[in-house]
Amino acid sequence: MTTEPLPVPSDTELYEQIAARVPSADVERARATLSAHGIQLTSPLPARRQLVVHRLYCEGTKTGTTDNDGAFTFDTPLGPGPWAIASTLNNVGKSSLLWALSYALRGDGFDAFKRPETVSWFSYVRADIEVAGVAASIRLTFDKPDRPSCRLLSADTLEHLAALEGSQETGPGVRVAATAEPEGVKELIDRFMLDRLGLRPLPLWAAEAGAPKDADGNRDSAEQVHGWASYFYAIALNSGNSSVLLGPTSYNQLPVKLMQLFLDVPYASELTQINTARKKGTQETNRVQRRAREDAHAREQQTEPLRQALRAAEEKVVTLEVNQPDLTGLLADVDAAARRLAQDQAALQEAEEGHALAHKARLKDERAVRRAQQSNAARLLLGALDPESCPRCDHEIDDARRTAEEADHRCSICASPLPEVQDDPDARAALLSRLEDRVNASRTAEDAARQAVQTTTTACVNSRTAYDLANARLTGARSGSWYTRLESARQDVYQLRGALAVATGNGMGLPEVVGDYVTATTSPSDTEDDSDDGDAILEAAAGVLSKVVADHSNALFADLNREIVAIAHDLGVANLTSVELNLAGHLNARKTGAKHPFKSFSPTDRLRMRIAAIVGMIKVGRKRGIMSHPGLLLIDAPTAEELSHDNARQCIKTLYDTAANDHGIQMVITSIDDAVWEFFPEDRTVTGPDQRQLF
Length: 695
Fold this sequence. Notes:
Blueprint (H helix, E strand, L loop, with lengths): L10 H11 L5 H10 L14 E12 L7 E8 L3 E6 L7 H13 L15 E10 L2 E11 L2 E9 L2 H5 L11 E7 L4 H13 L4 E6 L13 E6 L1 H4 L22 H9 L5 H35 L1 H19 L4 H48 L1 H5 L18 H10 L16 H55 L1 H23 L7 H4 L2 H5 L12 H38 L4 E3 L10 E3 L2 E3 L6 H21 L8 E5 L8 H17 L4 E6 L3 H5 L5 E2 L9
Parallel strand pairs: 3-14, 3-15, 13-14
Antiparallel strand pairs: 1-2, 1-4, 4-5, 5-6, 6-7, 8-9, 10-11, 11-12
């Protein structure tokens, strides 16, 4: 029973679903973002892939055999349907012919068919093929073993190719389409097959060998592009010893991706492209960040001596600054001493001025006594005014006028003659007494003023001494060795900071900028989407397509599971209860109801399970009107390790019937089993004389 096909969403529906998951994007933005990564969502059309081998021709020289060395030519027609390269003997070249054919079809010999001792036998291989309806002939010339050059011929029809004899390369309707030297053969065949069969390279990511793990345990990855050489594993099957169901490796779910491809699961290829784009963006960002961290760590190690020296210099500056003299206190002391000195100097000046006035007053009083004792004129004026200057004009009365007053009896003020007076002894005695009292008082005042001058002079000297001492202390602090050591330590810090800045790539020499280096070098890669919503769109697209691919894969796998079980039974796999392929590529087989991992199958049964999987994919595709698998199967010795004659016979019969009853399948097997001669007609059996040596 075949499940009904699920409806396939159109590209417009997908873009709308993607845009709906990203609030900042619309349909056009989603389309543009995917297009920028080389991803175009287009409604898939049914695949029509077909690869048919119509002729295999080989030339060479056998060496190292016991009885069959020498030049040989092998030429056999082939075509759709079942074919057996058979012999009753081992080691006569059956697998080697399959290897030669695989070299022409793959651009590189298939390892499962390779027999190292026979590689050097082949000098020329010709494979006439039909690829998606186009007739072509691949010609390999081996100047060195396993290192052929290639000429790719195209023809108007298969008949034009058939008309060419042996290694002949020219003829009507035939032309040389391309050539390649040994290093370019694989690339030429890869490009030709992918283009003609409508296949895209399959990019996957794998951890780099020896790459360090990050904090999450992940290693740097590298993109691995799987092309025709990997797809070829669905044509030339792994040997029974391999534990991989399909393909060269099980890593990154390659087997299930190949199954999705050959089941024509819609949008499976686009989903792989999207996941690759996301992985590439994340990988590049992680790589840049990791390398920036590694570079920063390396710089840290290289500059650690500088950093240690800088730390020591900074600690020295801090220590000196903590132990520096109290300049503020010293300045305050100098200021206080200066103010005290100024006060004492002002007091001294005031005392000196007071002493001068007292001295002048004493002298005046003494002069008055002398005058009173020396002249009548003075006595006349004893009770009168004795001015220092003219009361009208303030002109100073000098000594000459006073002498004139004493000697000539003329007034010292107006110069007029003084009147004669009679001497009164009592009055004179009283006057002299008063004058003596005044002199004594002025002398006392002068002594007090003199004492004040002495006192203030002493205070001023002390203030000056204190000021000089405070100022000397300040000058000593400013000009001492501490300040010199501090300036030297600061200079060391500046120089070390500059050296560290240069060593870390910070040309500005600003220490605070050094820490920004890692941040500056971990900016997003130029290959990333410029907008903030680019990653969100890729994530949304992956989510939308994952659901589509998963739904269609599960539906197709349900049909494929039934086909695998039925075909495996027919091939002789005993006690197989069920298989349940999942999206991780696990077969999930059960035998007699119990779990039976693929690696637990015997080598013979592993090969038969592969055959069942490939044939099952072809049949599921045919039922749905598609030909996504090229239809060619190359199988080496499917019954080589079969111990049961009946099982071997059943396997050979099933292989023949499968290819004979489905005109879209071409199957080429090698075998020495007797059942080959029973089921494969003579015209479908490639063998040598007496069913022994092939060439």
